[in-house]
Amino acid sequence: MPKKGWASGEIARKGWHLDSDIRQMRPLLGFQLPHRPANLKAKTVSTSSTTPALDSTSIVDRVRHACDCLNGTTVHFDPEPEGPTHGVFSDIDSLGLHPETFAMVRSLFPQGLYRHQHQAIAEVMTGQHTVVATRTSSGKSLIYSLPVIDSLCQNSDASSLFLYPQKALANDQYLKLREFGRLVPSVSQLIDCRPYLVSRYDGATPSDIRGQVRDEAQVILTNPDMLHYSMLQYHDRHWKRFFSNLRHVVIDECHEYRGIFGTNVAHILRRLRQVCHQHRSDPTFVATSATIHEPQTHMERLTGLDFKCVGADLDGSRQGVRKFWMASGEEHFYDYGRKLAFKLAEEGLTVLAFCPGRVAAERMMARLLSNHDNELPFVRVYRAGLTGAEREEIESGLRDKSVRLVFSTSALELGIDIGEVDAVVCIGLPNSMMSLWQRAGRAARAGKDGGIVLIPGETPIDTYYANHPEELFGKDNEPLVLSTANRRVVCQHYACATAEVGGDEDSLNTEILGEEVESVKQARSDGKMDLDVFYRADPHMHVNIRSIGEGNYKLVFGREDEAIGEIDEFHLLRESYRNAIYRHGGKAYRVKDVIRGKRKVILERDYSWNETRAFINKKIKLKRRHKVADYDRMMLATVDINVTEFLVNVTEKDRSGKVVNSWNGNMGMPTHTLPTEASMIRLKRPLWDALAAELGLQDARSALHSCERLLWGLFPTVSGPCDKQDFSSASEVDADGSASIYLYDMVYDGVGLSVLAFDRVPELLDKAIERLRECGCDKDAGCFRCIANPHANEISSKRATLRVLLSLRESLASKCMVTEVENDAIASEFVTTKPCSACSTMVKVSDRFCSNCGEKQSA
Amino acid sequence: MTTISEEDLSERYPTSLIRGARIARLGERYIGPAASDATTCRALGEDQVGWFIGGVPTYDRMIELMRRVDDAQVGGRWIVVPATRFLADVAHQVWMEGSQLSKRKASCTMWHGDRVTFCVPERLSKLLTINHGVIAGIILLDPNCIVHRGRSFGSGKCRVVHDRPQLIVDFKAKLAIGRWSPPLMIMSIHKAAAVATDTVARNYGLDAMHFIEGSSLRCGEIGCLVNEKDSDISGRMANSLVS
Fold first, then answer.
1. Nearest residue to B63 (alpha-carbon basis) of B99, B102, B89, B44
2. For the residues B205-212, what does the mean pLDDT come to?
3. Which of B163, B198, B207 to mutate to test the interface with A (most CBs of A within 10 A)?
4. Which of A54, A667, B133, B205 could serve as A578's disulfide partner, Cβ 3.0–4.6 Å?
């Protein structure tokens, strides 16, 4: 089934190549052509680890052949290939370009621009805010580069701001932009006179040149962090010239701005607009993304501006053949994926193997290395937590083909230039449709063919899609979740915006900043909101734009405390806890100590092939109810909660799976507390008591946990597609004898995602019952596709779980009263400490023990 | 997760052999009595909470207290870990004073009493291979409270590293029954307020510590009179394995 918006009617001639056109468009499309030495035209297939000769068989056929060669392959889905598509061109006469720009474009693109490029550039040139959401490798970077260069030709003082979610992307585009500017004589002259005319300005910019960049730069490539911490904060002191001449703001990969990051960036962009207004400029916003649901709506929420959309329906780019498969083997999907990816690489293809997470990526690499005497220079691991130098080495290795197989996390989904990838293997289905299309877009770029193999994992939702693959490919992209109404974030940015207008709250431009800021301003004027956040001397330093913790921990190794990477608080508890075996770049390290105060994780090399696993418990503290649906024996509610996670056990196993070590307790690891919002399903005491009496308390508890995991796993199939990283679940038996299941947002104070479940619980329960009944496993303990939990030492029971689900479903048939609760605080949200029951010292509400006497605190 | 059974607990802690006054770390405010009975040791073992017994007057006093535990001849075996080899030597000299055995070896790193085994951290793994019955707990004798700081980490394959806290953590983990493991007690001449007990707890893999006033500590059967050292020591060493 072709993807919606594809030019499905256009069928190319077999074997058609685009090399001549692609070489002309090279600097603009942002990729390097592979160098083809003459001797690589012979048709040979080699299984050695040296670079083999390229086969004349098509890439698609070679991927198919590799799948066929692996024993026990089952193909679940084998749709027709998509494409290739011809380009649809439009002449550039009507764009009104400066003569120099016109001449440059004419010489590079004698056929004209792609239809969507023409349309988008035309909109931007008229000052219309535009979002472009065409497929990968469709020439989107030309859409924003050309107007910027043209504006420099028209006005040598014009400035432009390019915003990238990651430094690596900015670095990539910086070189291409400079190259592009050199093609236009007047811009080239400007660059000669002002070496910093086009500059990056981020954390990696050396401090000795920052002053010159501020003085000279007119095209700045940066990220939201730098925009927030430096450019907006000191706009009056250092950036007057730049902001007063600002003509364009480019937001690349705009789909990355979602969740808490997106919420913060939404406020930052509004503050940017306020600053521009102060400096009397009115820039045009240009946004791009390859995979996005309702791009117009997303950009309007992100910026507060009206946007025109140039979408996939106007896409006129040339694309190669793209072929999907969904396949699995008899062995574990990790092993099947690893073998398939390696086989493809051995065939001479460049392969990206996307893994479920960092740990999985490292394990794949480690397993391959162990099977090949640690000698695989063309295989690497790519993920967050690597140093910049390591990442650049892998990226350039992919470009020059010295690296042919990369086990990666979602870190490589974004458009960093890594050359042409022949095949993508997704080991475990991606968390979201957006992620799936981003990954698929890595192959079949710029007219080249590509193959994508999806290997379903052993989870309820992967199994569901393995059985219903047409549903997967028929799905739309997920709506991007961000909420400018997150009160904590609003207050922080209110304080920053106030500082940016000289400290006078009356000068705040609430029309630009938004109604949430207006309501805070109103509350402040009425004397109702007097929090510390508004009185800080340096409010910008207290905003954590990206993550939900207090900052990252450095991973250090060796005598000189050499930092090999970083890890955030959330992953600290899951990957680099005390005694963990932590893998980095294929090497194994033992975590010896985690020093909270210095934010350091001390590592030591480990030479075993063991693996460790952490078992984490959660405690839920209910703070407030909002909307309540009260049934006879159960209750549904949207609630505010605190989720505190802590380590309870670490288990180490050898390669045979035998437990060699097991450490109980927290091991001194910091707990992780997240205040957020959730949908709650509460089994009232009579229902819970009845289930406990029928099933036995232990089985009932275990069934409760199984229900929780099932509902969490199937949530995306019911509420609409969503990114699995943005929500989680918990369940517990409460002190009052009831039991509760929570689906909550994985974001500070929530972003309105999990509360969607409130209205869809009946459907969710039906799906869960269906999954359980249809699962092919014959044991009552279930399997990973239904209720078995690899992350806990707990025996599950399908019979008991089904009983609980059916009880919930029956309870929903009873009468219900729905109420909106105002100001119903279970406990005041501002209480953060309480007295210890033993020594009366004040302890944090989230602490499990008193630090002054060691007394265990009640929940 | 499973845990220790009531029977097993009763076997290890038929009576409270170690008792003292529990205090708050800062201000040394009295909280209540602390005793190594079955209920307390269950909680300590399941919650990964240790005892920090600070303010014990002397190292000799520590050894004397251990002797009283041994004299009681009830309950599980207590593993006493002198912080260093030197302290182990001193402990051995004191323990064996008057015994002919003491003249045979210049130093010793592991020896057994009826209910107490002394062992340096480096030899704890060897204890796991010896059948010594049920273990009641681990008592670290660290008068200056420095062992927790002695963690060096290797950066190369062949470098010898010393990480005594990890040896104790691993030993304790090996004795676990489900989510329970024998409690760890640390004795020091320094009071809790003078020690970074958070760091101590973290290094020993403990989630928290209870603080016991060292001068109030009593060991052995309840009602035992405070005696001077008994000169007849050799009769106690029925299963002596001096090494």
1. B89
2. 95
3. B207
4. A667
CB contact under 8 Å between B24 and A602, yes or no, is no
Interface of A with B in 527-566 (CB under 8 A): 557-559
What ipTM does the predicted assembly reach?
A: 0.83
Domain that holds residue B45: 28-147+163-216
Contact across the interface for B170 and A661, Cβ inside 8 Å = yes
Give me the residue from B23, B24, B153 closest to A604, CB to CB. Answer: B153
Long-range contacts of A237-243 (CB under 8 A, 24+ apart): A238/A214, A239/A214, A240/A279, A241/A159, A241/A215, A242/A159, A242/A161, A242/A214, A242/A217, A242/A218, A243/A159, A243/A275, A243/A276, A243/A278, A243/A279, A243/A281
Q: Helices A685-695 and A798-811: crossing angle, nearest 10°?
A: 150
Domain A115-314 maps to which CATH number in 3.40.50.300, 3.30.2350.10, 1.20.58.340, 3.50.30.50?
3.40.50.300
| Tally of domains in chain B | 1
B43 in contact with A, Cβ within 8 Å: yes
Q: Which residues contact A848 (CB under 8 A, 6 or more apart)?
A: A619, A646, A666, A671, A856, A857, B207, B208
Per-residue confidence band for A465, with pLDDT thresholds at 50, 70 and 90 = confident
Predicted confidence (pLDDT) per residue in A335-384, tens digit: 999 999 999 998 889 999 999 888 888 888 888 888 887 778 899 998 87
How far is residue A73's CA from residue A95's CA, in Å, rounded to a whole number?
Answer: 53
Q: Do A58-72+321-473 and A115-314 have matching folds?
A: yes
Instruction: For domain A58-72+321-473, give the CATH number.
Output: 3.40.50.300
B176 in A contact zone (CB under 8 Å): yes
The answer to whether A853 contacts B166, with C-beta atoms less than 8 Å apart, is no
What CATH number is associated with residue B76?
A: 3.40.50
- Cβ–Cβ gap B155/A605 under 8 Å: yes
Least confident of A59-68, A268-277, A338-347, A407-416: A407-416
Instruction: Determine, yes or no, domain membership for B11.
Output: no
Terminal CA-CA length for chain A: 52
B7, part of any domain: no
pLDDT at A827: 44
Taking a C-beta distance cutoff of 8 angstroms, is the pair A596, A669 a contact? no
In chain A, residues with a C-beta closer than 8 Å to the C-beta of B179 are 648-649, 664
The partner residue sitting opposite B181, judged by closest CB among A558, A559, A664, is A664
Q: A793 in contact with B at a CB cutoff of 8 Å?
A: yes
Among candidates B1, B22, B155 on the partner chain, residue whose Cβ is nearest the Cβ of A558: B155
Helices (H), A217-332: 224-226, 235-238, 240-244, 259-278, 295-303
How close B240 gets to chain A, by Cα (Å)?
30
Domain locations in chain A?
A: 58-72+321-473, 115-314, 494-542, 553-607, 622-647+672-820, 830-859
Contacts of B29 in chain A (CB under 8 A): 839
Q: Give me the mean pLDDT over the A727-744 stretch.
A: 91
Which segment of A54-68, A415-429, B39-53 scores lowest on mean pLDDT? A54-68
> Does B230 reach chain A within 8 Å, measured CB to CB?
no
Is the pLDDT score of A742 beyond 90? yes
Tell how many helices (H) and how many strands (E) occur in chain A: 27, 30
Which residues in chain B are contacts of A598 at CB distance < 8 A? none
Q: What is the pLDDT of residues A504-549, one digit of tens each?
A: 999 999 999 999 999 999 988 888 777 777 888 888 987 878 765 5
Average pLDDT, chain A: 83
Q: How far apart are CA A211 and CA A757, in angstroms?
A: 51
